[in-house]
Write a structure and sequence with these properties.
Elements (H helix, E strand, L loop, with lengths): L4 H29 L7 E2 H8 L2 E12 L3 E4 L18 H12 L7 E6 L2 E6 L1 H9 L4 E10 L10 H17 L1 H4 L12 H20 L5 H22 L11 H19 L5 H12 L3 H16 L12 H9 L8 E6 L3 H17 L2 E8 L8 H18 L2 E8 L2 H8 L5 E5 L8 H5 L2 H8 L4 E4 L9 E5 L4 H16 L3 E8 L7 H12 L5 E7 L2 H8 L5 E5 L5 H7 L2 H8 L3 E5 L1
Parallel strand pairs: 1-3, 3-5, 4-6, 7-8, 7-10, 8-9, 10-11, 12-13, 12-15, 13-14, 15-16
Antiparallel strand pairs: 2-6, 4-5, 11-16
Helix pairs in contact: 1-3, 3-4, 7-8, 8-9, 9-10, 13-14, 15-17, 20-22
Amino acid sequence: MYNDPQVVHFESALDDFHQARRRASLQAVLARLRGKSIAMLSYDEVRARLGGIEEPIRELKDIPLDAIIGTVSRYADFSRTLLPLRSTDSSRWARVRVANDKMEGLPPIEVYQIGDAYFILDGHHRASVAREMGSKHIQAYVRQVRTRVPLSPTDQVEDVILKAEYTAFLEKTRLDESRPEADLHVTVPGEYDTLLEHISVHRYYMGIEENREVPFTEAATHWFDTVYRPVARIIHQRNLLKDFPRRTEADLYIWIMEHRAALEDELGWRVNPDTALQDLSSRSTRNFRLALSRVLRKLVDTITPEEIEPSPPPGAWRRQREEDLGETGLFRNVMVALPGDETGWQALDLALSIAEREKSLLGGLYVTQPNKDGESNEHLDHLRQTFETRCRERGVDGRLAVESGNVTRLIFDRSFWADLLVMRLLYPPPLQAFRRLRSGLRSLIRLSTVPLLVCPPGAPADFRSAVLAYGGGPRSDEALFVATYLASCWHLDLTVVAVDRSRSGDDTLLSRAWHYLETHNVSEVHYKFKKGDPARNILQVAEGSELIIMGGYESGLLREILFGSTVDRVLWSAKCAVLICR
């Protein structure tokens, strides 16, 4: 009896069972250390969470054993990898193991399928034995369960919770029907409530704008097209997902919009998503060299007086805007510094004209003096009311911020959030060297990373024609880029003037400008080459024009301090606005 082959075979099967049990115990220990679970998922709970609908027809086919993640009734008896968890199951498991070796084999198991995952209805022991014997597939009667959100064989309990939330989100928004390409998966529970809140706010403003009750599903589709999709496009253009490999596009959208809201509270301005994204990236970058560069730059700012602080190299602003010109205008965020008198409102009118053309956000800044008695609330309320009224009349989204401190430093710090800085021109940088060092405008021209538009008293508040003063230097190239955009998109009548003190009739500079403009399909341009004093010639050509476009200080710091620059001399006599490009 002891040598009966059937008994020997059965006892060998029992040994296999106990080995499988020991592996299950080891897996349980390792899973606890990783904060995971080896338990099979409950089919009834998953189907209820995902709103699954069972199909009536069964299909016989081979299914992958490692895609079985749950069970209808025996989630305490087998592990996620189909290892047995209960010692009392040994005899039955061994009998199935023996029967599996016989020629007639075993009948197919029965499963439910949700997405790419399977849940066993009948045949747990057969599946466990098959996997223990090294099989990759098993024959099964499969009944499909339709859900809005499919399951994956790697899904854990927390994944099911997230997918249940996603299911509820899609049932409310119907975005899987109206925008089937939409992928709004998130990795943090509760974030779908955040997306629903965004849609609700969007729906509220849609109703006001269109003067009607907007269905939630219609608002969701409009939100996806006009709010979510543009941010998602920025995320992919910046290739941000590579920096956050375990996060999704929707995760980053929520982070960007939350950071945007925090910035708007901090600044008192509206901030567009791209600006919020740039700030978020600069604060959270994982690139050590970029982080070190920011620290060193801050150290230089701290220990170096503004008057002799080196100017940043030109080109970064232009390169960034060249990437985005297909999607947005050149000046998405316009900043205007207001002194609080009538010349300030003239600067505001100029900023409004630009924001109106570019569909920009407009941020105003009024700086109070810290060493003087606080200004009356009535005065500040009047400033805000006038600012908001003028913005509303022009259809521009604008906010006014009030701060106290050093005017130049506050304007410079705030210019980070702008693409264009607009301010009045009452006190150009003095021509005397040591007085010029104390000029706040000179510091802004040297340090600003965005174009600076200065407006002398009485200057026109709109542009029909412009003069580009082109000297061939790096900052002149920035001015050429801006002039090309304005001539192309604003249809300005553009004149390019090149001035050289020493060469007569040398049109090299004009040839460079002509080639760039022609390459960008701007051909209706006037070209003038002048000899002699640059500032005098620029101002002469600009008579009758509404705008002069020129580069910032091209010479080194010492030369600029000692001898001044063409920029300063133009500012002293200009009757029209001057756009100084970095």
